[in-house]
Design brief:
The chain is of the alpha/beta class and 242 residues long. The protein has a single domain, classed as Spore Coat Polysaccharide Biosynthesis Protein SpsA, Chain A (Alpha-Beta Complex), CATH 3.90.550.10. Helices cover 31% and strands 21% of the residues. The protein is built from six helices and ten strands, in the order E-E-E-H-E-H-H-E-H-E-E-E-E-H-E-H. The strands form three sheets. It has a six-stranded mixed sheet with strand order 4-1-5-9-6-10, sandwiched between helices. Strands 2-3 form a two-stranded antiparallel ribbon. A hairpin with a 2-residue loop joins strand 2 and strand 3. The two termini are 34 Å apart. The relative contact order is 0.17.
Length: 242
């Protein structure tokens, strides 16, 4: 049953332009458009009671409506460029809903369509964790395999270690855990955005996933290929391997 006490909004940013892959958000992954995976994930939530897609593309809008999302507006061009941040998109969407509909959600969850493989009930877990803790936000993360302590940066035509003491971190066991966001869920209170000017706030709770497919971020053509192969074969391959 949907949460009746709180207004919980899922915002899915899906602009039409993309440098890495043409028409990326509507390219097929597992026989449905990439963005549809995220819309269906939001629809499966027991807590989310409104889903909108923020897009500047009429084609994406049509497809998103077909899979069950609302399109209350077409995103203005100034919020649909390569330089537009997710924060810009969210603030525009919330501003529009407040002005045109007098609608202000209590909780917002941002779901990026470039992360199509969310574990079952991830969104609900993020919402419940936010509600039960004193966190300003809950963010889905994945443990980094490529650790920054062992990284190198270019300087004067040569590689320089990111840390001078990098040699002591040659063993994986001595490295401190490091996480990066997956794009699957950024869940936060509306008051977090209002108070801090961003959706993170000072108290971010991690929602850690060990599912490898959750780490897939479709940015380039190779990523799209990996997503397509994962959609077709990963679950079956995993069953055979266990």
């Amino acid at each position: 049953m949907k949460n009746k006490n709180l207004k919980i909004l899922a915002i899915i940013p899906g602009r039409g332009g993309s440098k890495g892959i043409s028409s990326k958000n509507i390219r097929s992954v597992g026989n449905i458009p990439l963005i549809a995976h995220t819309i269906l994930s939001a629809k499966n939530s027991k807590n989310v009671n409104r889903i909108i897609v923020s897009t500047d593309s009429k084609k994406i809008a049509t497809i998103s409506k077909k899979f069950g999302a609302e399109i209350p507006f077409l995103r203005p061009k100034k919020f649909a460029s390569d330089r537009s941040s997710t924060l810009d998109v969210v603030q525009h969407a919330l501003g529009f809903l407040q002005k045109e509909e007098n609608y202000t959600p209590d909780i917002i969850t941002i779901m990026l369509p470039t992360s199509p493989f969310r574990p079952f009930n991830l969104i609900d877990k993020s919402i419940e964790l936010l509600k039960k803790s004193n966190a300003t936000s809950v963010v889905s993360v994945f443990k980094s395999k490529d650790h920054a302590f062992k990284a190198f940066i270019p300087k004067d035509g040569f590689l320089k270690p990111f840390r001078k003491d990098y040699r002591k971190y040659y063993q994986r066991q001595v490295l401190p855990d490091m996480f990066h966001t997956t794009g699957s869920a950024y869940t936060f209170w509306f008051d977090t955005l209002k108070k801090y000017g961003h959706y993170y706030g000072p108290r971010m709770k991690p929602l850690i996933s060990k599912d490898s497919e959750m780490n897939i971020d479709v940015d380039e053509l190779f990523d799209l290929f990996v997503a397509e192969m994962t959609s077709k074969y990963w679950k079956e391959y995993l069953k055979k391997s266990l």
